[in-house]
Amino acid sequence: MKKVGFIGAGIMGRPMAANLLKGGLELYVWNRTRDKCNDLIAAGAKWGESPAFLARECDVTFSMLADPAASVDVCFGLDGVVTGIGEGRGYIEMSTIDPGTARRIADAVTKAGGRFLEAPVSGSKKPAEEGTLIIMAAGDRSLYDEVEKAFGMMGKMSLYLGEVGRGAQMKLCVNLVMGGMMAAFCEGLALASRIGLDLRDMLNILDAGAMSNPMFRMKGGLVLSNDFPVAFPLKHMQKDLRLALLLADEAGQSLPATAVVNELFKKARGQNLGDLDFAALWRVTKESGH
Amino acid sequence: MKKVGFIGAGIMGRPMAANLLKGGLELYVWNRTRDKCNDLIAAGAKWGESPAFLARECDVTFSMLADPAASVDVCFGLDGVVTGIGEGRGYIEMSTIDPGTARRIADAVTKAGGRFLEAPVSGSKKPAEEGTLIIMAAGDRSLYDEVEKAFGMMGKMSLYLGEVGRGAQMKLCVNLVMGGMMAAFCEGLALASRIGLDLRDMLNILDAGAMSNPMFRMKGGLVLSNDFPVAFPLKHMQKDLRLALLLADEAGQSLPATAVVNELFKKARGQNLGDLDFAALWRVTKESGH
Amino acid sequence: MKKVGFIGAGIMGRPMAANLLKGGLELYVWNRTRDKCNDLIAAGAKWGESPAFLARECDVTFSMLADPAASVDVCFGLDGVVTGIGEGRGYIEMSTIDPGTARRIADAVTKAGGRFLEAPVSGSKKPAEEGTLIIMAAGDRSLYDEVEKAFGMMGKMSLYLGEVGRGAQMKLCVNLVMGGMMAAFCEGLALASRIGLDLRDMLNILDAGAMSNPMFRMKGGLVLSNDFPVAFPLKHMQKDLRLALLLADEAGQSLPATAVVNELFKKARGQNLGDLDFAALWRVTKESGH
Amino acid sequence: MKKVGFIGAGIMGRPMAANLLKGGLELYVWNRTRDKCNDLIAAGAKWGESPAFLARECDVTFSMLADPAASVDVCFGLDGVVTGIGEGRGYIEMSTIDPGTARRIADAVTKAGGRFLEAPVSGSKKPAEEGTLIIMAAGDRSLYDEVEKAFGMMGKMSLYLGEVGRGAQMKLCVNLVMGGMMAAFCEGLALASRIGLDLRDMLNILDAGAMSNPMFRMKGGLVLSNDFPVAFPLKHMQKDLRLALLLADEAGQSLPATAVVNELFKKARGQNLGDLDFAALWRVTKESGH
What letter does residue A45 receive in the DSSP assignment? Predict the structure, then answer.
C-alpha cells in the first residue's frame, strides 16, 4: 500500500487524514469544499480532483463524511468512487451508515472489481486528533489485513468483525450501553440534586470507585455547568437507540431498560435539545418532577 | 486519638481493622464469634470483652457488621455500645443501615454524651483489603476531623457529607447509577449475543473507549463465563434500588429508567439469583426473548 | 341487626349512610363536625354522642373517613370505638387504610370482644350516591354474613375476600389496572393529538369497540376540555401504585409496565397536579415531547 | 351504487361480504381459492373471474385480505384491480396495510381514473359476523359518502378521517391503547395471583366498576383457563406497537409506558407466543418473577 486516498475533511476526517500523513503515507485528499484541505495540503498531502480519481489512483481510499447521504453521493454520484475503482483497489467507508447503504456500496465496489470495508469508529473529535479512535471494521478480510497498519495510525484499537454490516451492528450495541449509562448517570445525579446532596461530592465518589470512567468525568463537568457543547449530538444518540431497538425487535430480544432510555432521549429531542451534546439528557431528567 | 475499637470481624471488617493496625493504632477488637479475631490478635490487636467495653475504653469505636439487625444489637443490646459510651467518646457505624436506624443510634449515642458518625462505604472485599474503600461520612463534624486519618488507612477517599442520613442517601444515589450501568451493560451484550457478535470483541471495544471502567472489566469476565461468585449480592442491589426509588418518591423525583432497572433486578431476585453477584442480571437479560 | 352506627359524614360517608337509612335501618350517626349530619338527622337518623357510644349501642358500626389518621383517631382516641365496643358487636372500616393500621384496629376490636371487617370500596362520589359501590370485605366471616344486606344498600356488589388485609390488597391490584389503563389512554391520545388526528374521533372509536368502558367515557371528556375536577385525586392513585409496587416487591413479582406508569404519575404529582383528578396525567403525557 | 365487488373470502372477508348480500346489494366475489366463495354464491353472490373484472364491472369494489403482500398482488398483479378500474369506479381497501402501500395503491387507482379509500377495521371474527365492526376510512370523500350505507351493513360505526394514511394511523393509536390495557390487566392479575387472591374475584370486581369492558371479560376467561385461541394474534399486536412507536418517534412524542409494553409483547413473541391471542402476554407477565 503506497498511495492512500482520503475523502472528507470535516471535524473527524481532517485529523484522521493528518494522522495518516504523519504515519508516512503518500496521501491524496478530496473534499466537497477544497478550502478545508488547505492544512493537509500544506502538510504534504496532494489534492485529488474527484472521488473517482482517488479511487482509481490510490491503492486504498478512506472516507469519513457527515451523514449517509454524503456517503451515497461520494460513491454513486458524478465522478464517484464507483466509477473510478477497479481491480484490487480498496475502499473503506469509516462514516457511520446504515446496513442497507453499506451493502449497496459494498455490492457496487465489489462488482467493479474493488474490495470494501465498512469501518465505523467509536470516539469523537479528541480521539480523532490523538489517533486513539476505536475502529470496528467488517467486510473484505484481505483488505483489512493490508490497512491494519493505517488503522493503527488513526486509532488505538481496530477489530475485524466479519461480513459487511457487523461493524454498524457493533457500534449500535456499544452506543446502546453508552445511552443507558448516561441515563443512569443523569437519574442518579438528579436524585442527589433533588434531595440536596452536593453533585461535586457525588462525581468525586463515582470517579474514585469501580464505575470510574472518562465519560462520567467529561460529562460530569457539563452537568455541573448545565452547558452542553456538542461532542456527540443527542439526536444521533437517539437515532442509534432507535436503530438498536429495531435490530433487537427483528432478533426477538427484549430490552426494557433501553426502551425507556430511548423515550427519555426522544423527549429531550422533542424539547429542542437534539443538537446539544447527548449529556443534555440531564435537562430532561432534572426537570421531570418539577 | 490513641485507643481505637473495632466491632465486627467479617469479610469487610477484618481487613479494615487490619489496616488500622498496620496504620499504627492501638486496637481493641470484638466480634460475636471470638475466633474470627484470632488473626487480628496475633497481629497485635487486643480483645475487648464487649461492645460496651470498647465504647468506654476507646477514644473512638468503629463497627462494620453484616446487617442493620446486627447494628441494632451491638448498639442497644446487653453490654451494648450505648451502655458504655460516655462524654466525648466517638462511635462510627460503617455498616450500611437505613436512615431510621442511623438516627436512633445517633440519638442514643448523643444522649449518652458521645459523638456519632455514619460512614457507609463503597467498595467490597478487595478494596477493603487494599485500603481503597470510599467512605461517605455524615454526622458529627469534630469526630470526622479526628478520624480522617484513620479513614485514610481504610480508604482512598473519605467525604464529610453533612447531617446523619446524608451518608446513606449518597450511597443510594451512587448504587442507583451502578444498577443502571449494569442493566445497560447486560442489555447491550444481550443484543450483541443475540445477533451473533463476539462478546469478547464488544468487551474489548467498551474497554478501549470513554466508557472504560473497572466494573465492566470485572463483570465482563463473569458474563463470559456465566458464573457469578458474589462480590455485591444482587438482592442488596435490588434493595438499594427500591430504597432509592422510595427516596425519589418522597422527594417528587421521577426516575423512569431506574424504575425499570429495579423491576429487572426484582425479576432476577425472583428467579433465585439474589445471592449471586449483581452481575447475574445477565441471566435475566439474556433469557428474555427466548 | 337492628341498630346500625355510621361514623363519618363526608363526600362518601353521607350518601352511604343515607342509603342505609333508605334501606330501612335504624341509624345512629357521628361526625367530628355535627353540622354535616343535619341532613341525615332530618331524614330520620339519630345523633350518637361519640364513636364509643355508637360502638356500644349499635349492633354494627360502619366508618368512612378521609384518611388513615382519622381512622386511628376514631378508633383509639378519647371515646373511641375501642372503648365502647363489646361482646358480639361489629365494627366495619370502609375507609381505605394500610394493612398495618387495619391489623392494629382488628386486634384491638377483637381483644375487646368485638368483630371486625375491613371493607374498602371501589367507586367514588356518584356510585356512593347511587348505591352502586363495589365493596371488598375481609375479616370476620360471620359479621360479613350479617351485614351483606346492608352492603347491598350501599353497593351493587360485595365480596368476602378472606382474612384482614385481603380487602386492601385487592383494592391495590384493581387500582394498579386503573392506573395502567389511564396511562395507555393518555399515551394513545397524545400520539393521536401530536399527529393531528381528531381526539373526538378516537374517543368515539374507543367507545364503540371491545375496550369501551365508563372510565374512558368520563375521562375522555376531561381530556377534551383539559379540565380535571377531582373524583379520584392523582396523588392517591400514585400512592396506590407505590404501595402496589412495594407489595409486588415483597412477593417477588416483576411489574415493568406498572413501574413506568408509577413514574409518570409521580412526575405529574411533582408538577403540582396531585390534587386534580388522576386523569390529569394527560398533561404530563401530552407535554412530554415538546 | 348498484353492483358491488368483494375480494377476499377469509375469516373476515366472508362474513363481511355476506352482510353486504343480506343488505340487498348485487354482489360479485373473487377469492384466490374459489371454493371459499361457495357459501356466498349459494346465498346469491356471483363469481367474478378476476380482481380486474370486479374493478371494471362493479361501481365499488371492497377487499379484505390477510396481509399487505396479498393486497399488493390483488392490486398490481396479473388481472389486478389497477388494470380493470376506470373512470369513477371505487376501490376500498379494508385490510390493514402500511401507509406506504396504501399510498402506492391510492396513486395507481387515482391515475387510472378511479377513487380510493383505505378503511381498516377494528374488531375481529365475531364483530365481522355480527356486522358490528368499526370502520376507519380515509381517502376520497365522495366515495366515502356513497358507501356509507354499505359500511353500515358491515359495521356499527364508520368514520371519515381525512387523507389516505389517516385510517392506518388511527388504528395504530387505538391498538396502542389496547396493548397498554392488556399489559395493565395482566400485571394486576399477576400481582393478585402471586399474593394468593382469587382471580375470579378480581375479574368480577373489574367487571362491576368504571373499568368494565368487553375485552377484559373475554380475555379474563382466557387467562383463567391459560388457553389463548387466537382472535388477534400477539405478533400483530407487537407489530402495531412497534409501528406506533416509530410514528411517535417521527412526531417527537415520548411514550415511556408504551415502550415498555412493546418490550413485554416482544418478549412474549420471542417465547413463541406470537401466534396465540395477544392475551397470551399473561404467560410472560405471570412467569416474570419466578
Answer: -
- In tens digits, what is the pLDDT along chain A, a chain of 290 residues? 789 999 999 989 999 999 999 999 999 999 999 999 999 999 999 999 999 999 999 999 999 998 888 999 999 999 999 999 999 899 999 998 888 889 999 999 999 999 999 999 998 888 999 999 999 999 999 999 999 999 999 999 999 999 999 999 999 999 999 999 999 999 999 999 999 999 999 999 999 999 999 999 999 999 999 999 998 899 999 999 999 999 999 999 999 999 999 999 999 999 999 999 999 999 999 974 43
DSSP annotation of D34 reads: G
Flag whether the ipTM exceeds 0.90: yes
Q: How far apart are the first and last CA of chain C?
A: 60
Comma-separated ranges of CATH 3.40.50.720 domains in chain C: 3-163
Q: CB-based contacts of D260: which residues, under 8 Å, 6+ apart?
A: A256, A259, A260, B260, C256, C257, C259, C260, D183
- Residue B175 CA to residue B268 CA, distance in Å, equals 17
Q: How far is CA C40 from the centre of its chain?
A: 21
Q: Does D273 touch chain C (CB under 8 A)?
A: no
Q: Report residue C289's pLDDT band, with 50, 70 and 90 as the boundaries.
A: very low
CA-CA distance, C241 to B44, in Å (whole number)?
A: 55
Backbone angles phi, psi at A94, to 5 degrees: -100, -10
Q: How far apart are CA B227 and CA B35, in angstroms?
A: 31
Residues of chain B in contact with residue C254, where contact means CB-CB under 8 angstroms, are 263-264, 266-267, 270
Q: What's the pTM?
A: 0.91
Collapsing DSSP states into helix, strand and coil, what is residue A129?
helix
DSSP letters of chain C? --EEEEE--STTHHHHHHHHHHTT-EEEEE-SSGGGGHHHHHTT-EE-SSHHHHHHHSSEEEE--SSHHHHHHHHHSTT-HHHH--TT-EEEE-S---HHHHHHHHHHHHHTT-EEEE--EE--HHHHHHT-EEEEEEE-HHHHHHHHHHHHHHEEEEEE-SSTTHHHHHHHHHHHHHHHHHHHHHHHHHHHHHTT--HHHHHHHHHHSTT--HHHHHHHHHHHHT----SSBHHHHHHHHHHHHHHHHHHT---HHHHHHHHHHHHHIIIIITTSBGGGHHHHHHHTT-
A286 touches chain C (CB under 8 A): no
Closest CA to B258 of B247, B274, B250: B247
Q: Report the 10 Å Cβ neighbour count for D261.
A: 34
Q: Which residue of A has its CA nearest to C269?
A: A289
If you average pLDDT over residues B103-112, what whole number do you get?
95
Which residue intervals of chain D bear CATH 1.10.1040.10?
A: 169-287
Return the SS3 of B199: helix
| Longest distance between any two alpha carbons in chain D, whole Å | 66
Look up residue A44 and give its DSSP letter.
T
Residue with cell 350518601: C15
CATH number of the domain at C169-287, out of 1.10.1040.10, 3.90.180.10, 1.20.1250.20, 2.40.50.1020?
Answer: 1.10.1040.10
Instruction: Please answer yes or no on whether B177 and A214 come within 8 Å at the CB atom.
Output: no
Q: Measured at the alpha carbon of residue B217, what is the angle toward residues B215 and B223, in degrees to the nearest 5? A: 95
DSSP A116: E
CATH 3.40.50.720 domain span(s) along chain A: 3-162
Question: Does residue A171 have an active-site annotation?
Answer: yes
CB contact residues (below 8 A), chain A span 196-255, against chain D: 242, 246, 248-249, 252-255
CB contact under 8 A, A253 and D270: yes
Cell 457488621 belongs to B65
CATH of D3-163, one of 3.40.630.30, 1.10.230.10, 1.10.246.10, 3.40.50.720: 3.40.50.720
If one looks up domain A3-162 in CATH, what number appears?
3.40.50.720
